[in-house]
Specification:
This protein has 274 residues and is α/β, with parallel strands linked by helices. It contains nine helices and ten strands. It has two domains: 10-70 and 210-239, Rossmann fold, CATH 3.40.50; 72-206, Response regulator (Rossmann fold, 3-Layer(aba) Sandwich). Strands 5-4-6-7-8-10 form a six-stranded mixed β-sheet, with helices on both faces. Strands 1-2-3-9 form a four-stranded parallel β-sheet. The longest helix is centred in the N-terminal third of the chain and has 18 residues, at 72-89. It is elongated, with a radius of gyration of 20 Å.
Length: 274
């Protein structure tokens, strides 16, 4: 396993992929950090008989052999539906929302925002997305964006966005005296956010079931090794269903089913200079 280091490290990830041209690997399972990056090197890998299967994040690369991922437009739409239902039950005639999509260059974040906005079109009252703050999914960066947005936009009803923004938001809301006045919803889930939902600090998160996406990517690669062709013998793109994990239903989604064992640690293969 090699790691790019973040959504601003597209060139680094491309360099990692180029090393596989000389390493003699049989296949690559890739989670791209840049939607428009790596296309040429993926084409080179394919020409050398090395298939690349994309997992979790999307990529604009015609030479990709298959994709195991969900539709983040659908993810955003489901989150928008959840926020709409929650607001209607609360009797809110108007909504003020701050949205934190994530990095602009990632394939999933613009799609999430588009799906979210589409879902809100059906809300019976007035909806104002008063701020859309793009930024890398580092905790400090997202905390900075959330703090700035709340300070500059009084009267926000919902903080909605990537899991790092949702993770940072509850403590910031407490610091600013807004706890209980602003609700937090995440567009995806991660281990630390799971506990925040269980405690009620975060209302809900869409779960794109990364464990299952990983299994599907491995299954696709095995099928390719066995001579099967995506789009003919199995779907070129597929992914698991997307549940909304909430503070009310979280008991139905055990931690281990979403993320694997709590004591699991990934094994990284770091090259000199990485």
């Amino acid at each position: 396993m090699t790691v790019a280091g973040g959504y601003g490290e597209g060139k680094r990830q491309e360099a990692h992929l180029r090393t596989h041209l000389r390493d003699g690997v049989d296949g690559v399972i890739l989670a791209a950090v840049d939607y428009e990056g790596c296309g040429p090197v993926i084409r080179e890998l394919r020409e050398e008989g090395i298939p690349v299967v994309e997992v979790i994040t999307d990529i604009l690369a015609p030479a990709i052999a298959a994709k195991a991922l969900v539709s983040f437009h659908e993810v955003g739409y489901l989150v928008g539906e959840y926020v709409s239902r929650h607001a209607e039950k609360a009797g809110l005639d108007s909504l003020r929302i701050a949205f934190f999509p994530g990095p602009k260059n990632a394939g999933w974040s613009p799609e999430t925002l588009a799906g979210f906005m589409e879902a809100l079109e059906a809300y019976p009252g007035r909806v104002d997305v008063v701020d859309v703050s793009w930024g890398d999914t580092g905790h400090e960066e997202q905390a900075r964006l959330v703090r700035r947005s709340l300070a500059e936009n009084p009267g926000i009803d919902y903080v909605v966005g990537n899991a790092l923004a949702a993770e940072a938001a509850p403590e910031i809301l407490r610091e600013m005296g807004l706890a209980g006045k602003v609700s937090v919803v995440s567009t995806y889930i991660m281990p630390s956010l799971y506990d925040s939902i269980a405690k009620g600090d975060v209302l809900a998160a869409a779960a794109d079931l990364n464990v299952y996406q990983g299994r599907m990517a491995v299954d696709m690669m095995v099928r390719i090794f066995n001579g099967e062709v995506s789009g003919r013998d199995f779907p070129f793109r597929s992914g698991p269903f997307i549940p909304m994990v909430t503070s009310q239903n979280i008991a139905n989604y055990p931690y281990e089913g979403l993320f694997g064992p709590r004591d699991y640690l990934p094994v990284f293969h770091l090259r000199p200079g990485d």
